[in-house]
Amino acid sequence: MAAIEKDFRRSVVYQIYVKSFCDSDGDGVGDLPGITGKLDYLARLGVDYLWLTPFYPSPQRDGGYDISDYRAVDPVYGTMDDFDELVAQAHKREIGIMLDMVLCHTSCDHEWFQRALAGDERYRAYYILRDGRGSSGPGDPGQPPTNWDCAFGGSAWKWEPRLGKWYLHLHDVSQPDLDWTNPEVREACADVVRFWKERGVDGFRFDVVNLISKPEVFEDDLSGQGRSLFADGPHVHEYLRELVARAGIDGMMTVGEMASTTLENCVRYTRPEDHELSMSFSFHHLKVDYAAGKKWELAEPDIGQLRSIFRTWQEGMQAGGGWNALFWDNHDQPRAVTRFGGRAGVGERGGSWERVGKMLAVCDFLMKGTPYVYQGDELGMVNPGYDSIEQFRDVESRNYYQIMLEMGKGPAEALHVVNERSRDNGRAPMQWSSAPAAGFTSGEPWIGIPASARLVNAEAEVGVEGSMFEFYRSLVKLRHASDVIATGEVRFLDAGEEAPKVIAYERTLGDERLVVACSFADAPCRLADLGVEKYEVVLGNYDDAPAPGALRPYEAVVWRS
User: Fold this and answer.
1) How far is CA 115 from CA 125, 127, 502, in A?
2) Taking every annotated instance into account, which residue ranges of this chain make up the domain Glycosyl hydrolase family 13 catalytic (predicted)?
3) Does the pLDDT at position 2 exceed 80?
4) Is 274 part of the annotated catalytic residue set?
5) What is the pTM of this model?
6) In this model, does residue 224 exceed pLDDT 90?
7) Is 109 a catalytic site residue?
8) Of these residues, 62, 232, 257, 332, which one is catalytic?
9) What's the CATH code, domain 13-104+183-473?
10) Which residue from 98, 234, 412, 525 could staple onto 203, CB 3.0 to 4.6 Å apart?
11) Other Cβ atoms within 10 Å of 176 Cβ, number
């Protein structure tokens, strides 16, 4: 089956969290036929690629990112025939399929790890195994080899008596890290990618791929670097180039999720001449509401810091010849509409919900890079606001709720933090209608339906003038049609001292100039001179024209020379 090939600079990617998108058989879990049944909706939106989160067999200890078989479809999501039908039907609509490749770690249920547990030396060498500190000999675990923490709390090491070693898991304890220093591991991973490419897949997203190369020497983290200690390791670029070459995917649509990365490394990951990836995800801009840099400590978003991060990454990637993936939301993030002020008037015209949702879309879509729409962004979905910790399914959220209680926070405070930060905010079911279970399923959904589904849903927005969905459609069309947005230069502008919460930038190509100004403030502000007095207004998120030299609360305006 011929792959879909599109210019990634003009493309828009739509991310689907398969478990929560659409359930076709009433078991409460989204599935592949459910996606196939919604392809006309996605074609109407105008997106070019669908990135599907893992649907492979998994014990689901980490939402499917703990994979027990890379080459099969978990029966809860359908069959391989269902997958092939999805690819064929998407291709008929000129939509490409991108798959999530989780090659940093496997599930502990994977055959490779099970064979290691059974004593097979070949497969023991697939994983990172170490003796404990202070061990007196075989059978005595001693202490963990280093003081590294895993992403979900607790030690990154687990003692396994059947191995007689500690194994490294930078994520959940059920996700042992693969040892990429082993050439056989690297070939096995390339073979997985080839398998799906040969089934007609058009692109790949590589999960935490900058963590595949570990430090040369395993030492305690004495500087508080956390994941930065093992991000962008000494052989990561070598391993990526080898993977791309062996799998035969050079030139295909590819993106890497880069944890705790640097600008310099992301330039290298994405420069065409380095033959690694098309683009990279970085997450620095989604930490501007972390108090003291800590995810589970809340703060108001620092818009000055957000502007600085965008400027650094946009202008820095441009200078180095790299390429950004542009996004606010994904399956690991709370909803940006809630995060950046859209808590009022949810589902109603004119509330901060609508203003913030459209403003964020403008800010993101018109920068230099490839925009990613996460399912429900185009509807303005918000955090669900669950009432108890029992309603959460995410292992990280449940772990940190207990950690916060142990630190002295009360249950109400800990629940509030989880509601603001949980990955389940992005994993609540897609809101198709105001019907029971939001039209997601005819059964009992695997996780609770947000109350906002009564007003925020596809049925209420598709084809409705001025709706969030139609606003997103117009942005996709603009992205496809505009050369200056696809390939023009980017430069950030000074919006002035009276606009401290405004992010402004220009895109230029030849004689054409596009100026974008987005206010993250809940009050009006005055703008510095952006040189747009004689420009036409191309797009805005209010129904009437903007006032000269000013922005209203959460207003976004796009001018063109």
Assistant:
1) 11, 11, 56
2) 15-427
3) no
4) no
5) 0.97
6) no
7) no
8) 257
9) 3.20.20.80
10) 98
11) 28
